[in-house]
Amino acid sequence: MNKEITIARVYSLEGHDQLNHILDILRDEEGILGATVTRGIAGFGVSKEIHTSTLLNLSLELPLIIEFYDETDKVLRAIEKLKQRLELKHIISWPATAHIDQA
Asked: Which CATH number is correct for 2-99, 3.40.50.720, 3.30.70.120, 3.30.160.620, 2.60.40.10?
């Protein structure tokens, strides 16, 4: 069975103490189907400052990517709540198809 969904990706930094708040909102308040957090080994944003995990330039602000998915309405509601509560500025989303096996 196929189901139309929306995937969203939130970009943050490790040292900003937002991860647990984001996950709590997605899981407990919005009931989002699933989320995954990935820690980047390097990255930069608007400031162009490079954050990296190399020993010579060890940053406590490594990039974090929080990706989540659900029905479009739920994802858009969650994005608005995240933006309002945590002042997140880097969020993208796109339509996708979930290929669900009915076991």
From this structure: 3.30.70.120
